[in-house]
Amino acid sequence: MPELYEVLSKEDIDKKVAAVARRISSDFKGSELVMIGVLKGSFVFLSDLARQLTIPVKIDFVGVSSYGDDVASSGRIQLNREIGIDIKEKNILVVEDIVDTGITMNYLIDYLKSFNPLTISICTMIDKQQRRESEIRIDYACHEIKEGFIVGYGLDYAENYRHLPELYHLKL
Ligand code: PRP
Known about the structure:
Strand content: 25-35%
Structural class: alpha/beta
Mean pLDDT: 94
Number of helices: 3
Radius of gyration: 15 Å
Low-confidence stretches: none
Largest sheet: 6 strands, mixed
CATH topology: Rossmann fold
Strand order of the largest sheet: 4-3-2-5-6-7
Bound molecules: 1-O-pyrophosphono-5-O-phosphono-alpha-D-ribofuranose
């Protein structure tokens, strides 16, 4: 039976999301921001983050997948949903649940650059650096972890646990 160990409570998450939202609202005050959530994992975080911002934003999603039902990235990125709004010369905030190896984010940055946005910033709920394969400049990270497979708050294992309000370390 897989075991779950709480990493962040709902209250911890709320505080961290609010702190990052304050920074983003301040950094982009007076300019237009387009949030791009990376499906599926970011759907909970983006929804909380967007509602804490005090600046107007537009929201879109891209769909990518690399893990399948596994705990390790396959390294092969599948683009399941293309961006649907015009981001040319716009400030982009890519919103992820987790940056792990960085393979997905690297792919996404290249993909988004092809639409000629003005700037691309990166915001993630969890920054996990241990397995990072390429350098990624993360502008906003709510929480850093060293190791472990994390589920809950949008993150899954074989499509399970996304609905949990807290973040957990999953031990198989
Ligand atoms: C997860 C997560 C990121 C990516 C990060 O997505 O949401 O997009 O993995 O891993 P990386 O830094 O090693 O590339 P996943 O492929 O599990 O799809 P999902 O969001 O639908 O769960």
